[in-house]
């Protein structure tokens, strides 16, 4: 089938139907059941989750969003976000890697300018069950992309921190402003095999949470770049920049998943508690109205976040489906709506993962339970970008209609 420029700009069309959602939810549920038992051990080991990533590859989820005409499953972002949420409830680190995979792989569609090259990227990714990551942290020092002769040969140098999943991925997305050559002065978006000569994964991630997320730094030492590595140029069009609200939507879904996981574990621990508090007048802790009230409050707030996330997951497909017809207003409306989710998902997840201990009691702090893993994960990742600025973003738009400048955070 011939790939047209319009196909390139909008590889995803329409909305997920019930059959699609049901099919992939079943796959995600099965995979999550197999991954969940090892989550605490992966966290303690702070090691690369290589075996778990192989499970994800074998499940078929790696090519979920690749268009069917290129050998993928042709699913939609709504389905992908639900899949990520399911995996993140089992292991937030793995959910983050999978979510980043979907959005980095999607850069082929968002930034691509060559239909033939885009078709090749998608087809090769589907055939190889590639996992995609990125080294695009905008607060790290900029990389240098210097023309090295020929029509389009460059050398890439520098270091990017917090490159989640890069050390276990097949492809890493990165970019730099070119110096010299055909792309002089332009921000070139690159897709590079992670094992290419000159790419070094520093394995320096040792943080409070997300310890199985392979989030170490990546060093580029005079890496050879040719035209075949170029996805496109970031020109800041409304459609190409829709990928960034997608990243923020991913975060909201993962924070929701962490809160849901904490509540589910708290329920198990509370039901397993022996006896009751001596002033309660009941026989079991699970029957104590004080604890029921706490759980009820946390569950209700989490359910509200879920409703907002579900609505925005579907809305994201609607905007993405506009392709190159996406307007600045379309993009701004989506950005602000997702910023609402980011605010409430962050605060609810932090509160839930902390306060579940009020119900589960002192015994739940035993290391074997790893109940603290939920809080450590959401506390670590929610510092990715300050949520206070998301509040300002929402409030300023409500008051004056102001929209923040487009960036890799907005």
> What is the string of helix and strand elements?
HHHHHHHHEEEEEEEEHHHHH
CATH topology of the largest domain: Butyryl-CoA Dehydrogenase, subunit A, domain 3
Low-pLDDT regions:
none
Helix-strand category: alpha+beta
Number of distinct beta strands:
8
CATH architecture of the largest domain, please?
A: Up-down Bundle
Q: Report the CATH C-level class of the largest domain.
A: Mainly Alpha
Helix content: 40-55%
The span between the termini is 36 Å
Task: Kindly estimate the percentage of residues that lie in beta strands according to DSSP.
Answer: 5-15%
What's the shape? globular
Query: Would you identify the CATH H-level superfamily of the largest domain?
Result: Butyryl-CoA Dehydrogenase, subunit A, domain 3
Enzyme class: oxidoreductase
Main location: cytoplasm
Catalytic activity: dibenzothiophene + 2 FMNH2 + 2 O2 = dibenzothiophene 5,5-dioxide + 2 FMN + 2 H2O + 2 H(+); dibenzothiophene + FMNH2 + O2 = dibenzothiophene 5-oxide + FMN + H2O + H(+); dibenzothiophene 5-oxide + FMNH2 + O2 = dibenzothiophene 5,5-dioxide + FMN + H2O + H(+)
Pfam families: Acyl-CoA_dh_2, Acyl-CoA_dh_M, Acyl-CoA_dh_N
